[in-house]
Design a protein that fits this description.
With 135 residues, this protein is mainly alpha-helical. It has a domain of 90 residues. The mean pLDDT is 90.
């Protein structure tokens, strides 16, 4: 499966959040690349846990900006974050229980999420922040 590639088109016009997206994508690509590793390997659950923790941190930053600048889509965006956290926790749990479907599930879910959340939903607040001229 091909890596996810960030570029300027996906900028949300807040430098700190763009940098966090790039880091998150790097972690997700590492997970996509790990998929051939045996499911019993701690590498999968460790990398998943690390990515999930970073995603939590990143979501709270995004949500802070949204609240501060009164982004009207705050509630529904927060709901998407909650859904991701729930799914990532499931994947972590399944990885620890050595479920054999985990590598494929990780690949599919994380890639789909990058494309639909970071490259689509996040751009909605990006357009809003652009008007606010946040640095
Ligand atoms: Fe987001």
């Amino acid at each position: 499966m091909e890596n996810v590639v960030w570029d300027e088109r996906y900028s949300v016009h807040v430098r700190a959040l763009d940098e966090q997206h790039q880091k998150l994508i790097k972690m997700i690509n590492a997970l996509i690349g790990l998929s051939e590793v045996s499911v019993g390997s701690e590498a999968i659950s460790d990398a998943l846990t690390e990515m999930t923790n970073y995603a939590q941190y990143h979501f709270s930053k995004e949500e802070q900006y949204m609240l501060e600048y009164d982004f009207p889509g705050y509630q529904s965006h927060k709901r998407e974050h909650r859904e991701f956290k729930r799914k990532a926790a499931d994947l972590c749990l399944n990885a620890m229980q050595n479920k054999t479907t985990v590598p494929m599930e990780i690949r599919k879910y994380l890639k789909h999420w990058c494309v639909n959340h970071i490259f689509k939903s996040d751009l909605k607040y990006g357009a809003f922040f652009k008007k606010k001229d946040i640095k």
